[in-house]
Fold this sequence. Notes:
Layout: H1 5-17, H2 20-26, H3 31-45, E1 50-53, E2 56-59, H4 61-89, E3 92-99, H5 101-106, H6 108-118, E4 121-128, H7 131-139, E5 145-149, E6 158-172, H8 185-188, E7 192-196, H9 201-213, E8 218-223, H10 226-234, E9 240-243, H11 248-252, E10 256-260, E11 267-274, H12 282-292
Parallel strand pairs: 3-4, 3-5, 7-8
Antiparallel strand pairs: 1-2, 5-11, 6-9, 6-10, 6-11
Helix pairs in contact: 1-2, 1-4
Amino acid sequence: MRVDLTSFKLFVAIGEELNITRAAERENIVLSAASKRIADLEAGAGVALLHRHARGVSLTPAGRTFLHYSRQVLQTLARMEGELSDFTAGVKGHVRMHAIASAISEFLPHELNGFLERYPLVKIDLEEHVGPAIVRAVAERTADIGIITENTPAEGLERLPYHVDRLVLVVPDGHALADRPSIRLTEALDHDFVGPHPDSSLLAVIMRACMETGSSIKLRIQVRSFDGMCRMIEANLGIGILPVLAIEHQLASGRIRAVPLDEPWAARRLFLCMREFAALPVSARQLVQHLTAAVEAPV
């Protein structure tokens, strides 16, 4: 069955107008030529696509199927033309990204700066959210790209490896654990903890680790931001578990110390998630490719 773009456009017009005469006028085709095109389509398909009536037409089941795919073909071609024109004029667009706090603190500032230097016509809306909210936003198309941890369920989404987020035990300078070369979680659980907010993926990791060892954690206070957690730890309100790269500035002050955690879960893998990479706008695909190019080697 051979079909050209004119026939696709004509059939979509017929499906919307339910009248061959009006569809032919809309597509600037003489009525006889339009009728011949439809006859050729039906001959090629070997099945009727239209029911003819005195005042118009209706679609047969085969016609509804042909209309569906005709629209898909035209939409794909329009998207292709738009994206090719983006490459001609320079990639441009609007990318909506949701990410967990550690990705925003540790990796994205430098990487987005490099991306926007290369593609200055792209606008990025970046929002911080917890993992389940990110997955929901991507699934519901309110975000194009998400960054989540490996333990965040993301059924139905495409995932690509991103960085490894390394967690450490953070204690006040002078604390009894401050000079340890490394530590197991169970060795620290006798102390009070400053924890992240209840919905955070970081707290979920900590609570899961405690549950697996049959231990409990004494959360003395919970704080939403990493900086806030560090300030509470400085004030001797407890110790905490935080991504080491996210608190480099606070560690440089010397008022808190980072003790490596001797735990497999302390190296959290992060993932980029999206509904389907191939279906993303060109600007979002370029951003995903830029971010994945910076992925760390596996640990």
